[in-house]
Every structure is written in C-alpha cells, then in structure tokens.
Amino acid sequence: MLHVRIWGCRGSIPCPGASTAEFGGNTACLEIRADNKLAIVDMGTGIRPLGDWLVVHDLPKGPIDADIFVTHTHWDHIMGFPMFTPLFIPTTKLRIRGPVFYEDDTMESIISTLLSYRYWPVRLNELAAHIEYGEIKETGLDLGSGLRVGAKYLNHPALCLGYRFEYQGKSIVTAYDTEPFRNLFTSNPGDPGYDAAAAREGEAAAKEANEQFFHFIKHADVLIYDSMYTTDEYNAGKIGWGHSTYEYAVEVALLAGVRKLVLFHHDPNRTDAQLTVLESEYREKVRGKTGMEIIMAREGAVIEA
Ligand SMILES: [Zn+2]
Ligand SMILES: [Zn+2]
User: Fold this and answer.
1) What pLDDT, on a 0 to 100 scale, did the predictor assign at position 292?
2) Which ligand has an atom closest to residue 154 CA?
3) How far apart are CA 165 and CA 163, in angstroms?
C-alpha cells in the first residue's frame, strides 16, 4: 500500500495560532509509506512532530531508516531538520537528497551551514545518526522493494524538484513551489525590447516545459500541488514568485487525469475559515464533471494512492 501523511502543509513560514489550528501552521513535510519503506519529502517544521512520532511508533520495531527528499533549500523546506529527534539516535540511517545546487554547494555543506554556531548549538558532526548525502537529477532513483522515485525540475526562483513515487502501479506526485512556465521574452511588438525571434523561442520553450511537466503528473493517483494564491492575488503582482493558484491546480490536474488533488503550500495568511470555503468552492466547481477528488491539505491527513 502506498500512502502519504501530511505533517506540514504551510508555505513560507510557520504560522501557529487560533486561525490556523485546523489546517495547521507547520511548513512542508510529507511522510510517504510504501508498505515498510519510508520516504520523507522536505524538512520543514512538520518534520519535528514526524520525528517524535517515528520514535514512538517505528523505533520499537527496529532502527529508523528513511530516504529524505528535499525539494529545494528555501527556509520553509529545511528549517525543521535540527529538531528531528531520530538524528540523535545512533541506529538511525538517513539518506538525504536534493537537487544540484548553485555554486557547487553540496547538500552536506548546506546542512552543515544550518548547524553552525551562529544559527544553532549542535554541529553536524555531533549528530548520532548515520547520514548519507546526495544529489538527485531528473533520471530519478530506484529505492528498492519496488519503490521508485522520479524527479522533475519545477519553475521556482531556486532549483526545485517535484517527485513522483511509484509503487505497485500506484503513484504519489509532489509538485509545489512552482508555477506554470511562461515566455520570458516580451510578446508585445509595442515594447522597446521586442524581438520577434526571441518571443517565438520563448513561447516554444515555455510550451515544451509545460508539456514535460504535464507528462510528469499525468494519471497520478495523488497529486500534491502548489496552491499558494487565488487567481486575483497571483495577477496582482505575484507572477514570477514561483507559486501557483487554486484555479490552475484544478485545471491542470483535471487535464492530467489525476485521481486525488491535494492543494498544498498554503499562504501563511490564509485562515482556516478561508481554506474551508475555498475547498468547498472548488469541490462544487468540479462536481459531476469528473471523478477527481479535491482535498485541501491539512496536518495529520493520511491520503491513500
Ligand atoms: Zn516553500
Ligand atoms: Zn521555495
């Protein structure tokens, strides 16, 4: 059985409080289980309660052994790492992978910086767990026991990966901190920088990138997709910030034949009341037209592929 449990679904910064208690204020962290195999996507603040849960529920059965996939190293996706309790247990085995970084920084050096004295009292070499670090590219990876993970570069102001977990014919895809690819050149002949050839090329490149992305999410049983903004918010100055809209999430998931769409990476200012309204609004929009289920991500939710 393949399933995902959400430990953090908030974007940008943790936001605890009365108005976010229902959907949760922890930042990105997903626990993916393929029978006995454990994969974790992102190390936002949600990884702290996950770690505590693993110590209580997994450790009595044997050492904690997990593959951690970091989508990218923006704060909200790594800031929970120092508080992941299994790091301090000598039998823990972790393999942490992420995209190739700019300036040849390795995953190990980035995490090591995070654990330098100016930010945190514990050093990387003081962690008891056995940790391996690595990069992952679009070729993906075989994790053994029939679990495979594919990867795809997304459209974000940092090298950011989406992941596709495949197990026994079922799939869970993560694609957040991304927005549709668009033409980076002006297509308005009235603009001073207009170049017809560049505009055509830009259009073709964006179209191709969006088609590749579409192929990546196609027929996913579960798609966890970025829905940081409403369309009005997006159009009012958020284009190019690396996040998508509810509207686009639903549109692209429907086209791709997704079974369950999980709207993820909530804006920190979005209240429980607003998320509840948006969830029922979009469920209503697709009612009767498709079998696709729409789920507003909330902490603690378990979603089966
Ligand atoms: Zn983020
Ligand atoms: Zn980001």
Assistant:
1) 96
2) 2
3) 6
